[in-house]
Amino acid sequence: MRYDLVIFDNDGVLVDSEPIANRVLADYLTELGHPTTYEESIRDYMGSAVHRVHDLVQERTGRQLPADFDTTLHSRTFDAFYRELQPIKGAAEVLEYLVATGVPYCVASSGTHERIRVGHGRTGLDEWFEESWIFSAEDVGRGKPAPDLFLHAARSMGVEPARCVVVEDSPLGVRAALAAGMDVYGYTGMTPAERLTEAGAKGVFGEMTELAPLLI
Fold first, then answer.
1. pTM reported for the whole predicted model
2. Phi then psi for 96, rounded to 5 degrees?
3. Fewer CB within 10 A of the terminal residue: the chain, N end or C end?
4. What whole-number distance in Å separates Cα of residue 184 and Cα of residue 203?
């Protein structure tokens, strides 16, 4: 292996939550008088923490979102997760491969710890992660595209950033990994390959079965 640690994004890479979360977000923003399509939600918010939604709405409209926005969005998103969430095809097999080859891995997500735990529990991926291998934007001051989360994950796992590789599905996540001094491969499950390569991904892949050879 060329790397001492594989850092996975969670939403859209391990669990198929991005279509659900972005549909809920677009519908809620539209309901609040900020018309947003599903495609615009993916373009503007995929891979980021919820503070980015507040920041962009404020910047574009001069208006603040309601004080209970985060709570309501959280409730609606989790309700949809419990009904619909599935693992990304092949994710468990990749984790099994890393265990078999003795390569450490962890998850570093813009989502909350609760969101990660619920997602893993609903999809059966919880058996592959110890609690100390799970990192959230809640743990740091700034979420992606800042490098803080990835640097925190590497430091906590005891690995130098240059020896880490990140698996991401959003340009914001790719930029964060590069800013942390890490290699990054882009999963094109929901994002066109050119957007990930333009952001700086070392390579892209469309099926989880294609990931392992990239890491060797």
1. 0.87
2. -60, -40
3. C
4. 7
